[in-house]
């Protein structure tokens, strides 16, 4: 928290826990520091990709001034903030990701030839300023050194200027504008090589996190809030090897697995139950994985758990089988839902036939057991490309370079009287991250075991080792 801009004893505010800085401190604090030396970095690998993306945005808005804000720190409570995370469009268009500075602004200034682009940010303060020692939010004494204008310009290969030089204009187009949001969202529908490499990295770290979870399952089963043990183990991996989680981990054991976004994670992990874990590591580039595995806590699926699990797996495989360039995004979902509807109808659970349930206008009875979609685009946001037009997304055609999830599930709530008792309280989701290539679909998360037999063998292997 800032203690103010003053530099005299009289003007330094006194709070209920802070004392003014005495004259001796003020007279000496700015001196005695070694000269700063800074060697200029080479441009980071994503800089060239970010420049190509900016060129596309520029083409879409001739003559317009565009303002892309990184966003600001968000207050958690009193003088504590949430960790800063730059807006995805800002990170995508600058390549400045986990290390981006709050309040930065990327400005496209229109010229005859297109746009001149400048990145404005709060450069580190000189050591003669009060900010240096007295500003707990941005001061170097408190949060560590911030980068220089020249350093960031070299690192990101973009012109930079001090934040104080930025002036908003009346006709600026900023994020929140429908056209700009759509353009920067649709720009991310097809990933470039850099993005695909980062998605692979995020999936690899997430795979390690799932190994950690399996290793910790016996410990989780002994803890009253075993779901938190699982969440914590994954968090450690996410922070050690990446920037963190791309979204709040869902650690849902037993009947909690039927609550789609169970992030309270305060339940027990009981041997004999399944635990559904939906977790993804966000790499330092901010690209995130989004993976779900449903694991038998004691290492073995019961017959009924296996029956549900293998149905979900069949649905996922059916969706994967149709995913290729030229197919509509919605066809992937339809393939999965056909399996779900057919199987639950066979189990005698539906009040109508599978064909009737699959009727787009009058059916949908099977969706009681899988209310969510099968797929979403994935990238720098877990639900990427959120402002893309429907005709480019759900009704759009798949192209090489797209990355999306396939994540069918079946969820039988503990108090659902429409299903036999043996199914109640069972929730299963299997979620993989898919890259489309010209040759078809590649499952980026295929190395994380998926079949019931492979999951059992995985648990046995990790817990033995
Ligand atoms: N983890 C959120 C989702 O799967 O969409
Ligand atoms: Mn997902
Ligand atoms: Mn997920």
Short overview:
33% of the residues lie in helices and 15% in strands.
Task: Write structural notes for this entry.
The protein is α+β, with helices and mostly antiparallel strands and 465 residues long. The chain folds into 2 domains: 33-186, Creatine Amidinohydrolase, Chain A, domain 1 (3-Layer(aba) Sandwich); 193-464, Alpha-Beta Complex (Creatine Amidinohydrolase), CATH 3.90.230.10. Helices cover 33% and strands 15% of the residues. A hairpin with a 2-residue loop joins strand 4 (105-111) and strand 5 (114-121). Helix 8 (193-222) runs antiparallel to helix 9 and helix 8 crosses helix 13 (452-464). The longest helix is centred in the middle third of the chain and has 30 residues, at 193-222. It is globular, with a radius of gyration of 26 Å. Residues 1-10 have low confidence and may be disordered. It binds glycine and manganese (II) ion (2 copies). One manganese (II) ion (MN) binds next to loops. Residues 290, 376, 405, 407, 431 line the site of one manganese (II) ion (MN).
Supply database-style keywords.
465 residues; Creatine Amidinohydrolase, Chain A, domain 1; Creatine Amidinohydrolase; 5-stranded mixed β-sheet; 3-stranded antiparallel β-sheet; globular; binds glycine; binds manganese (II) ion
Strand order of the largest sheet: 6-5-4-1-7
**Contiguous runs where pLDDT drops below 50 for at least 5 residues:** 1-10
Rounded average pLDDT: 95
The helicity comes to 25-40%
Name the overall outline.
globular
Largest sheet: 5 strands, mixed
What's the topology here?
Blueprint: H1 23-28, H2 46-60, E1 66-69, E2 75-77, E3 80-81, H3 88-94, E4 105-111, E5 114-121, H4 130-134, H5 140-143, H6 149-156, E6 159-162, E7 173-174, H7 178-186, H8 193-222, H9 226-241, E8 244-245, E9 250-253, E10 274-279, E11 281-282, E12 291-296, H10 303-322, H11 329-346, H12 354-357, E13 403-406, E14 409-412, E15 426-429, E16 432-437, E17 440-443, H13 452-464
Parallel strand pairs: 1-7, 5-6
Antiparallel strand pairs: 1-4, 2-3, 4-5, 8-11, 9-10, 10-12, 13-16, 14-15, 16-17
